[in-house]
Structure formats: C-alpha cells, structure tokens
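Reviewers asked in the last cycle whether our approach scales beyond single polypeptides. To address this, we selected a multi-component target totalling 271 residues and predicted its structure end to end. The input consisted of the following lines:
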Amino acid sequence: MSVIIETPNQPRTRKRAHWEKYGWLFMRVSGPLLIVLVFTHLVVNLVLGDGISAIDFAFVAGKWADPFWQVWDLAMLWLAMIHGTNGMRTIVNDYTSKETVRVRLNYTLWAVCGLLVLLGTLVIFTFDPCPANGAASLLPSFCPAR
Amino acid sequence: MALKPQGTLYRGKVGMWSWVLHRITGVAIFFFLLVHVLDTALVRISPEAYNVVMESYKTPIIGLAELGLVGAILFHGLNGLRIVAIDFWSKGTKYQSIMFWAVMALTIVAVAGFTPLHLARVFGE
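The resulting structure, written as structure tokens, was:
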C-alpha cells in the first residue's frame, strides 16, 4: 500500500487570518510601549515627590485634570489589559488538557478584560476632579469648593 | 572511572529560568492589574472611598509587597526587551545569556535604589 503525499514541497495556503501571528506580534509591539508607559507611571507615582504617601484623590484629580495623563493612562489601561490577557491565554493554552476547560477559561479571561477596559475607560472620561459629594478637604486645590 | 548518575530532572539553563520567571511575574502583574483598575475606579464613587482603599497601600505589609511588585514589573519589562532582541536581532540568540544577567543586574540595582526611598515613606510618618 502506497501513501500519497500531496505536493509536500508546496507551502500551505490558508485563507484564514493568522491570529496567532498577530497575537505574537502584538506582545512584541505593546511590550516596549508598556515599558515607557509603566516605568514612567512608576517613577511619577512612586519615586518623585512623596511617592506612595502622597497618593490620594487629590493626587489623581490633579493628574487627570490634564488631558496628557488621561491619554497616558488610557493607553496604559488598554495595552496592559490586552497584553496581560493574551499572556494568560498563552498559559491557559499550555496547561489545560480538556478543550472545554481551555475554551471556557479563555472566554472568561476576555470577558473580564473587556469589562475592566470598559470600566476603566468610562472612569477616565467621566471623571470629575471636583465632585459635589466630596469633602472639601479631600479635593485638589484648584476646586472652587476648597 | 564510573560516571556519577545525574538523574533525569531537566534543570535547564538561564533560557529556561528566564522563561519561568517571565511567566510567574506576568501572572502576578496580571492579577495586580485587575485589582488596580478596580481600586482606581473608586475615584468615580467618592474621594472618601478612594482614599480609604489607598490607605491600605501605605500599610507595612502591602508596602513591602509593593517592592516585590516593582521588582516583578522591572524584571518582566526588561526580560521582555531581551525576548524582543532574541526574536528580531540577528545576534540575539548569541547574547541571550549575557542579556539575562544584564536584566537581573538592572532589576536588582533599580529595586535596591527604590527600597530605602519607599520603605522610609511606608514606615515613616
């Protein structure tokens, strides 16, 4: 009995999108961007000034009063969440042996990712640095209530 | 001369251990990120709600854990650059081992510089 191998010297032609390749590439493009975004975030929030002891509502309000930090944090939110979720997907794919478990875990990961990205985006864009429900002493110095 | 039995456990070299560390730090950073998006979202509830939760980040135990978090982020980021270099730089695989030690050295130096600064704030007034 002979085995017929169909033109093995021909490359596989696929019409499907190469999602794994795009995922692989995304990790290598978002990674260096995240280094700039996150390392700056750490220096500004934890090293400069009084670091962790200065972080409160007024500190965040002072930053997000500036569109520069709104865009900065928005980029960090989206890239970090997608980068992290895609990394977790890789780990799930590596360690699950049952297909249904794998699919359900990955579905959960992307659902959580979508919810948190949506929540974070809404928070950044609907943020009020001088809310009426805040005690005046907790507000940043530029608020009229202070 | 008889050969000493070596066992069958694969111990790997820095290529393997950097991969292990990259995974562990990645998972740790991921779960912190989930918490961090949620705690930051509290600014939308009220200044009081946000400040109460932020106070927990200034306690000694969490303050110490933050050093681990900063170290994990530094290692994961720098080792990520090493991975990019291995994948896209023609000499990447040749220098992957020395790059790993450079990543470790930079991480340790940065954490060592950050530690006294941060602990003074966590344990100070």
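Chain B has a mean pLDDT of 94. We regard this as preliminary and will revisit it once experimental data from Aim 1 are available.
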